[in-house]
Design goal:
about 120 residues; mainly beta; seven-stranded mixed beta sheet
Length: about 120
């Protein structure tokens, strides 16, 4: 099994930046795809970005290029850099992992079997 723990959330002023982390433990050698999602109260969960085991990335086309996904060399920590934060970025951010290869559904929650507990981001204007 794989366990995921997010961190790095908090309260930020609009225009600022934040880097979220997701620490993976357990059978991480079987992870082939990881992703970041977010959910605001009353809204559906939104896929932000995914990255595969060789570093290929996908991003939601609606997010204006302010988000950057990355992972460390041993692929046990996933990151999400968020720049020029906006009030509408306030949400709980989740990382997810799966042993399947990242594919066309890598920004869909159904593509992932393992989820973290989330880290909350608030943005003040």
């Amino acid at each position: 099994q794989v366990q995921l723990v997010e961190s790095g959330g908090g309260s930020v002023q609009a225009g600022g930046s934040l880097r979220l982390s997701c620490a993976a433990s357990g059978y991480t050698e079987f992870i082939n795809c990881m992703g970041w999602f977010r959910q605001s109260p009353g809204k559906a969960q939104e896929g932000i970005s995914s990255i595969d085991s060789v570093g290929r990335t996908s991003y939601s086309g609606s997010l204006e290029g302010r988000f950057t996904i990355s992972q460390d060399n041993d692929k046990t920590t996933l990151y999400l850099q968020i720049d020029r934060l906006k009030p509408e970025d306030a949400a709980t951010y989740y990382c997810a992992a799966d042993r399947s290869l990242c594919g066309r559904r890598s920004l869909s929650e159904s593509a992932y079997a393992t989820w973290g507990q989330g880290t909350q981001v608030t943005v003040s204007s």
